[in-house]
Specification:
- This protein is α/β, with parallel strands linked by helices.
- The protein has a single domain (6-124), classed as Response regulator (Rossmann fold, 3-Layer(aba) Sandwich).
- The protein is built from six helices and five strands, in the order E-H-E-H-E-H-E-H-E-H-H.
- It has helices spanning 14-27, 39-47, 66-76, 91-99, 111-118, 122-125; strands spanning 6-10, 32-36, 54-58, 81-86, 103-106.
- The protein has a five-stranded parallel β-sheet, with helices on both faces.
Length: 129
């Protein structure tokens, strides 16, 4: 069953993209999943989309960092829920992410963190629809 909702997973590490994809697929099988390895590829993917519901963006990527890319995505898709996904857990970065209206997911990621972001924590507890 598709809800028409989408998630774009942006991370230069293939394993990280695969893990997020797996967790999303388990907790929200209704989401259409798209991936990109870096900012330029993400922007090409987004060019073909009329809307994006969720986006996870790694902070440290070649070319453009996650905050810079998030600003572009936010401008084009103001209703998108965007999470900065990073191992850089410095409070200054958390504050910058919060000021930009981004969720912050620290690495290492796990299914609970991703489920909470995409809004289906009940998938892990066995409650809900």
């Amino acid at each position: 069953m598709s809800t028409g909702e989408t998630i774009l997973i942006i991370d230069d590490a293939r394993l990280a993209r695969q893990m997020v994809r797996s967790f999303v697929g388990h907790t929200r099988p209704d989401l259409a999943i798209f991936e990109a390895a870096e900012a330029a590829e993400a922007l090409r993917v987004l060019d073909g989309m009329s809307t994006v519901t969720f986006t996870t963006i790694d902070y440290n990527m070649p070319g453009m960092n996650g905050l810079e890319l998030a600003a572009i995505i936010r401008e084009r898709f103001p209703a998108a829920r965007i999470a900065l996904l990073t191992a850089n857990v410095q409070s200054a970065l958390r504050l910058r992410a919060a000021a930009a209206g981004l969720d912050f997911i620290d690495k290492p990621i796990n299914e609970n963190k991703i489920a909470a972001f995409v809004g289906r924590t009940d998938a892990l507890t066995g409650t809900g629809a």
